[in-house]
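Cross-posted from the bioinformatics board.
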Amino acid sequence: EVQLMESGGGVVRPGGSLRLSCAAFGFTFDDYGMSWVRQAPGKGLEWVSGIKWNGGNTAYVDSVKGRFTISRDNAKNSLYLQMNSLRAEDTGLYYCARYPRKGEQRFDYWGQGTLVTVSS
Amino acid sequence: EILMTQSPATLSVSPGERATLSCRASQSVSSNLAWYQQKPGQAPRLLIYGASTRATGIPARFSGSGSGTDFTLSISSLQSEDFAVYYCQHYNNWPYTFGQGTKLEIK
């Protein structure tokens, strides 16, 4: 059974850091690219960052460039998001999602999310 | 960055009737378009990809159409479990932006 399990969320003060993790189970991890998607309370979905199957290419939404770093460890079937210089507007539920390495790059499986709260 | 605009923001439809949701991209995304359904307290679920291909396990009452900049998600004969928020997303190139969502509510 395919599973994605996020962890690492919590409450942090503005300017602080958090590292999110996403553990993957039930599929060949390096057959998939991965992304982080967040959802502020009561708001819509926002794509945050993506990484290709081999970690060779990464991308970020403009609002997090220079502050967030996405990475993966295929040997550990894990995805990460290092978040620095956190702001109140980074508050939300952070989902990891996978997309096929080849073909249509839709997000076919999602985790249940980990909550990040940035507040003083 | 490609801007995705969904309409309407809220759609009120009676059970058993048909719902039509729209999504427009600010520039062509070819057929690199997906639709997701999200219910309260749940992660999004993939419904449609490639603009018109149903994901595994998605009922035939869900259908997608369009290409380029204009896309439609149709749900025929609405069931109670279909009332939710629907998002479109392009995956033509990074960033893979989402629309702001359409809330489908019971009339």
